[in-house]
Every structure is written in C-alpha cells, then in structure tokens.
Specification:
Elements: H1 9-28, E1 38-44, E2 48-55, H2 75-82, E3 85-90, E4 95-102
Antiparallel strand pairs: 1-2, 2-4, 3-4
Length: 107
C-alpha cells in the first residue's frame, strides 16, 4: 500500500468490504426512486488508517451473535475483532460507520 500499511492491507480490505456490504444492504432497504448511494473515505495519519462509509439509512448498526449455521450476520463481529476501534454516528441524512486500523508495533 502506498501509505506503508502493507502489513494490514488484507485486514483493511476485509473490514472495508464488511462495512460497504452493510451500507449497500441498508441503503437497499430504503424506498426511493433514486439509486442507492454510498460513500467511502479512507484516511491515514502514518500510524493508523480510518475507513468511513456513509449510507442514507438512519438505522444504526447492531452487532449480533451469529449462530454457527447462520449464513450472514458476522460483519460487525469481524470488525470488532480485527480493528482497534469502530463505531457509527448519525449525519443530517444517513449515518457513517467507521473502523480504525493501526500498524502493528515494530519488533
């Protein structure tokens, strides 16, 4: 990765995928004649990477305990387990879900 986050690139890709999937599903539930829109921002300060995803739904994410035989429902569990921190906040319209990924400490 350009920002020197190669060591966490796969984790960043997985977490971004989970948040984006949740945003697409949430936006798809809205009754609108307009196509669903999501926005993604990735920022870096040299020590950590933050991924933010906006969707138009006001429904805040809820972490569930997925049963072993359940097909979905593990996204927020993965985000919680693999990120340093995560959360969500409301915007005037919609919400943003974010995750923070830190570089591993140098040996």
């Amino acid at each position: 990765m350009e920002w020197g986050f190669g060591a966490v690139a796969e984790t960043a890709e997985l977490l971004a995928s989970e948040i984006i999937t949740n945003a697409v599903q949430a936006a798809g539930k809205l009754r609108s004649a307009e196509p669903s829109v999501i926005r993604i921002w990735v920022t870096c300060d040299g020590n950590s990477l933050v991924i933010r995803v906006w969707d138009a739904s006001d429904d805040m994410p809820i972490r569930h305990e997925a049963a072993p035989d359940q097909i979905g429902g593990r996204g927020l569990m993965l985000i919680e387990a693999l990120s340093k921190d995560w959360g969500a906040y409301r915007e005037t319209e919609g919400k943003v879900v974010w995750t923070l990924i830190s570089l591993p400490d140098d040996p």
